[in-house]
Amino acid sequence: RVGTRPPGEIRVVPGAGAMVQEDARWLGLVAGERRLFLGVALLIGLPEDELDAVLAHELGHYAHDDTRLGGLLWALRSRLLNTVVTLRHRAAVEEAGHRATFAARAARRRAAGKPPPVERNPTRGPDHFLALVFAAYAGLCLRLTEAVSRRQEYAADLTAARIAGRDVT
Fold this sequence. Notes:
Layout: E1 9-13, E2 18-25, E3 30-39, H1 40-45, H2 48-63, H3 70-111, H4 126-164
Parallel strand pairs: 1-3
Antiparallel strand pairs: 2-3
């Protein structure tokens, strides 16, 4: 009724979630193996008509080819996040090193009976500025991909409402 081929595998998982996955190839141009993950709590706790709505929603993602680029989008988001976290960590380590060097120099001057040097703001290294650029890019990328994901969810909801009924969905 959804108008697409079914998943090749259905996995029952802990919890109350449902999701679909597809191992598409060639940047989503070639369809791949499909899997449907269904939480055991849904199977136990939902009436049949509501379970139909959940299944129609998830299969609606296949019908609209939402899953074709899912792996790529997940990889993009996770790599961007990892890059930002790594750059921020490296910038913090570099700044802490500068502060430690300054503190050691000040201690040596005090031990020699000289006044400590005037503390200036540490010069920020390239990792700090790269982190700013990548964080801005990641924010833009997340906003764009989340907007696409939201539209995909609305389309899958419409499929579920068409098949299982608006009130049930």
